[in-house]
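User: Here's a structure from my thesis project, written as structure tokens. My advisor, Dr. K., wants to see whether a designed sequence matches the one we expressed. Can you design one independently, without my sequence as a hint?
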């Protein structure tokens, strides 16, 4: 399948069996505080996630919160935005997605692009290949690398928009009129396709076949990972899915780590760095994304303000580890004990999981991937950009 075909078929894969709620990896990351000790300490360890992001944005030269602004303010998408306004008052998830893209006072939505810019600056220009020395460079980052960061964000944004497609076969009366959901689906497909088309055009303008190949393969990984998530989260399989942590890590990389890892590698390719530097950038992106996902999975179990009755993913890292320690038979027994009148009591199940080893093991796993990300940075020269990348890891791997 070529790149154009991949972009065309991408929304079809994402709409296979998604439900009304958005359930991909969180676009946000809540700041959390440290417990215990682990590898390394930062000379500047900001207490809050927003402070980490703010300092990193100063290093790369401009707020990445506006990285996709040129595309979002284009005439084509402005026309789509006018149509999105018709969804006001409905429960279509596209409305929540659009609101978060415009304004989110608590979290930074452009993490992937920011990491690409930081690792580009941390690596600097290649010392062995001077063919790209004539490229425009601002704040130590080539213009083509900034374009790549924007492309990465466009792909991620398009994914979030497409994940807002509602499975009409699973609609309930409480979800609202069918015509509203049908209209919202059409707008989600149209706007997501527009973003992907812009990403495709931007990739072509980079005029680097290896970079195109890397980002195309990342999209294929996303399709494969999301298709699997959709299949295992179907109602009849949601509770009975049986995977070990190794399988979970493989699947999570596809749907959550491939885009960032391969974008970091592509940034090194654009600066003509050798294979070793490219691999280190890939490793940082991979393990950073894995830590980010595990952190997100842990929030329902460690966040003080989390509602006891709030549903959580039964295939998240703490639950998978809990099941692996407990054994399949005992886990299914706990599931049955937590069911009342055919519905799962999440508060009871959450308490059971917190009493086991799954949560603490997931924290250890998050820190393991954080340590691997820090190891990958050791091949980069000391700099403000490298420190910012380290601080991002420190912020993701703090727990209370």
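Assistant: Designed independently from the structure alone:
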């Amino acid at each position: 399948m070529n790149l154009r075909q991949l972009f065309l078929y991408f929304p079809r894969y994402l709409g296979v069996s998604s439900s009304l709620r958005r359930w991909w990896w969180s676009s946000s990351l809540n700041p959390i505080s440290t417990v215990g000790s682990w590898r390394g300490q930062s000379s500047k360890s900001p207490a809050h996630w927003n402070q980490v992001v703010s300092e990193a944005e100063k290093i790369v030269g401009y707020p990445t919160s506006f990285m996709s602004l040129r595309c979002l303010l284009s005439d084509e998408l402005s026309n789509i935005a006018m149509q999105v306004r018709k969804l006001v008052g409905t429960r279509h998830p596209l409305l929540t997605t659009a609101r978060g893209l415009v304004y989110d006072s608590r979290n930074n939505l452009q993490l992937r692009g920011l990491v690409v810019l930081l690792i580009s600056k941390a690596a600097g220009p290649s010392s062995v290949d001077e063919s790209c020395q004539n490229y425009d460079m601002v704040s130590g980052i080539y213009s083509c690398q900034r374009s790549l960061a924007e492309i990465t964000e466009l792909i991620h944004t398009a994914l979030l928009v497409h994940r807002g497609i509602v499975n009409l076969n699973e609609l309930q009366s409480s979800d609202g009129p069918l015509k509203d959901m049908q209209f919202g689906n059409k707008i989600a497909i149209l706007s997501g396709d527009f973003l992907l088309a812009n990403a495709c055009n931007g990739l072509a303008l980079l005029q680097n076949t290896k970079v195109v190949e890397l980002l195309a393969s990342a999209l294929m990984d996303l399709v494969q990972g999301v298709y699997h998530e959709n299949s295992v989260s179907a109602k009849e399989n949601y509770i009975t899915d049986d995977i070990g942590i190794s399988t979970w890590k493989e699947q999570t990389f596809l749907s959550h780590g491939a885009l960032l890892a391969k974008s970091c590698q592509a940034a090194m390719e654009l600066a003509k760095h050798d294979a070793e530097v490219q691999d280190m950038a890939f490793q940082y992106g991979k393990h950073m994304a894995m830590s980010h996902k595990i952190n997100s999975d842990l929030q329902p179990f460690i966040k003080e303000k989390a509602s006891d009755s709030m549903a959580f993913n039964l295939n998240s890292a703490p639950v998978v580890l809990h099941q692996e320690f407990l054994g399949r038979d005992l886990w299914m027994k706990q599931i049955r004990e937590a069911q009342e009148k055919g519905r799962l009591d999440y508060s009871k199940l959450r308490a059971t999981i917190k009493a086991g080893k799954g949560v603490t093991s997931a924290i250890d796993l998050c820190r393991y991937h954080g340590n691997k990300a820090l190891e990958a940075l050791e091949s980069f020269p000391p700099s403000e950009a490298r420190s910012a990348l380290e601080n991002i890891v420190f912020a993701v791997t703090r727990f209370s």
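When you compare it with your expressed construct, this may help: Residues 178-206 form the longest helix (29 residues).
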